[in-house]
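Notes from hallway chat w/ T.B., transcribed later so I don't forget. T.B. wanted the structure written out for a chain they're using in a teaching module, and asked if we could keep both sequence and structure tokens in one place. Agreed to drop them here.
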Amino acid sequence: MTAKVYQPDPEFEQRVKKATERISENMHIVANEPSLAFYRLQEHVRKALPPMVEKRVEVLALQRQLQGRCYDVEYAVSAVKTMQKADKNFSNTIEYLKNAIHLKQQLKFEEQKRHKKDGQRDSMYKRLSAHITTLDYLPDEISDVFWNSQTSDNFYDT
């Protein structure tokens, strides 16, 4: 028996070499793919994070402003409620103003009567109340209130 001597087939060797190169290339791609993915993630984070942080800072600033404005609204509402409770005080003040105007008119009338009796002599009331204006110069709201109270009979009863 004759021993067969192995003779390499050049075409077969070419195919084997090409296949091993492709396998090696694929192994290299697979081995480096995770690092490529991490690189892409890092690149995305580097681009996306700064605008996101800026928006977060902006949202926090807006939240603080909104909270401050909510406190302002609460304070305004409590002020309005307090003003509603002050209605009695305003009513009393109007009554005091009516009374003061009426007394001023009475003093002026008495002063005019004395002037007619005493001549042109100035009274003590005129000197002390020289800065008080007549009803002609008072705002219409106050003088209307006074004239309305003069016509009602209940003003003198209180």
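Follow-up for T.B.: Confidence is low (pLDDT under 50) at residues 153-158. Might be a good example for the class.
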